[in-house]
Design goal:
single chain
Length: about 475
């Protein structure tokens, strides 16, 4: 979701166009209508563009939706069914194109981004991180736990793992090594910098799976689960499913990294003193910080306990409205929040594009096709296999959003086509991969980039630790998380 700045190579443009055109010119598979095949060709081109990034991802989503809307007569409805269905190319196409913006999931994410902006503007996020460093920072191992705890607290209502990790936690943690003369791109980086920065990054990936609000693509998975598997996943459903494996990971990970990538300095009393000075310089908690804290706690409480009488998006908008009333931030601040509006546009267009697969009948055709060719496999074994394939395939992606859009609907559709497959269990098992698979490579998620470029973690170490921790995280999901999932 980062802004597109680098120059674009010709193949980044050519590949998505070739994918879309190549599929469109190929005869459709048996049993699939021509208009559905055309739609799938456009959808595949959009996914390819999300991977190659010839334009920013939101622009790709807008172009994809616009293309389908313009060609609505040929790709949204079979020509023979137009009269019978009363299809109006003008009104039906625009209604479809804008349908993603009617998703409560999309607006819940947008509102939660405003929470993250509040953390930044009031300084509450930095205060929380510094306070944890002051309390736990006297030993290097405990400093790792301080970074982990900061990530966990902020992830309850910060749906951008990049904003949380790179924008709030990283600047605080990156200030620590210099206190011990631990320098980037230098042998002294192993004194303390390598350990604390990698631990903070790894914590970011776990908290992204622990909380529904910890990572924006989680909401894409939720929307796919609702449309394809016909199940609804609440904030509490997600946390209850993730906690049995993700909470132990949060507790074990700093210790595991401590032994795999040990710091040379074991004691770090100066860090606690530094954090205390930084907090002192910030002064006492201001009115806006206090108001934000109360409103965030209230919103999380409504997400957990109030979903039976208030939709999560409405609860978030209540909190955002009160933030505006009490001056935590202004409308101008909201209007300038590029990350929020960019994410809203991206998610809305991807929700629309993915929903179109069901509208044109592609999902049903694919499910029937898979059901016909798969038989005799135990559902639990298939869940483990599908989740493992989904997780490992992230080596091919540089975006959690692109991966979720491309792979989640396919893996879920394949799974629920298997007789006896518990759809809810599979949907949750796949969705819970979203955050933790971000640990495997330096490009797996936007949150990895500042840590990777910090100069404290060697490339070989980043890849090696990613492989080991990735296997550890996946094993915990498969052995602890999946057996305890409902359904």
């Amino acid at each position: 979701m980062s802004e597109h700045k680098k120059s674009v190579a010709w193949w980044q443009i050519a590949l998505p166009l070739a994918v879309a055109a190549g599929l469109a010119l190929t005869p459709p598979p048996a049993g699939l209508a021509q208009h559905a095949w055309y739609y799938f060709a456009i959808f595949s081109g959009v996914v390819a563009a999300l991977v190659t990034e010839p334009l920013p991802n939101p622009a790709v989503g807008v172009i994809g939706v616009t293309t389908v809307a313009v060609l609505g007569r040929w790709v949204l409805q079979a020509p023979a069914d137009l009269a019978k269905a009363g299809f109006n190319p003008a009104s039906d196409s625009v209604n479809w194109a804008l349908s993603g913006f009617a998703s409560n999931t999309v607006w819940l994410v947008g509102a939660a981004f405003m929470f993250a902006m509040g953390y930044e503007k009031t300084g509450l996020g930095r205060r929380l991180a510094l306070w944890l460093v002051r309390v736990l920072g006297k030993r290097t191992l405990l400093l790792g736990y301080a970074a982990t705890a900061a990530e966990a607290v902020l992830a309850t209502c910060t749906p951008s793992n990049t904003a949380r990790g790179a924008g709030t936690v990283f600047p605080v943690i990156n200030s620590v090594p210099g206190i011990y003369d631990s320098k980037p791109n230098d042998p002294s980086s192993r004194k303390i910098g390598s350990y604390v920065l990698y631990t903070a990054f790894a914590a970011n990936t776990i908290t992204s799976s622990l909380f529904l609000t910890g990572c924006a693509p989680n909401f894409l998975a939720l929307n796919f689960a609702r449309n394809i598997a016909k199940i609804n996943i609440t904030w509490w459903d997600w946390f209850s499913a993730a906690a049995p494996f993700a909470l132990p990971l949060l507790l074990l990970m700093p210790l595991v990294v401590y032994f795999l990538y040990p710091p040379e300095i074991k004691q770090s009393p100066e860090v606690s003193v530094w954090a205390a000075k930084e907090l002192s310089a910030m002064g006492g908690m201001g009115r806006k910080e206090a108001i934000l804290g109360v409103l965030v706690v209230g919103a999380v409480g409504l997400w957990i306990f109030g979903d039976v009488w208030m939709d999560g998006a409405i609860a978030a908008f209540v909190a955002v409205s009160l933030m505006l009333v009490f001056g935590v931030f202004t409308w101008r601040d909201m209007a300038r929040n590029d990350a929020a509006w960019t994410t809203i546009t991206l998610l809305a267009t991807l929700v629309t594009m993915a929903g179109g697969l069901g509208r044109v009948g592609f999902i049903k055709w694919f499910a029937d096709y898979v059901a016909h060719h798969i038989g005799g496999y135990d559902p639990t074994t298939m869940i483990i296999l599908l989740v493992s394939i989904y997780f490992v395939s992230h080596y091919m992606f540089a975006s959690l959003t692109a991966h979720t859009t491309a792979m989640y609907p396919v893996m879920l559709t394949v799974g629920i086509a298997i007789p006896g497959m518990p759809a809810g269990r599979l949907a949750l098992a796949l969705a819970l991969c979203t955050g933790i698979m971000g640990v495997i490579t330096p490009y797996a998620t936007g949150a990895a980039l500042p840590y990777y470029n910090s100069g404290y973690i060697r490339t070989t170490a980043f890849w090696g630790l990613g492989a080991v921790l990735g296997a550890f995280f996946l094993a915990m999901l498969l052995s602890v998380g999946i057996p305890l999932l409902p359904g």
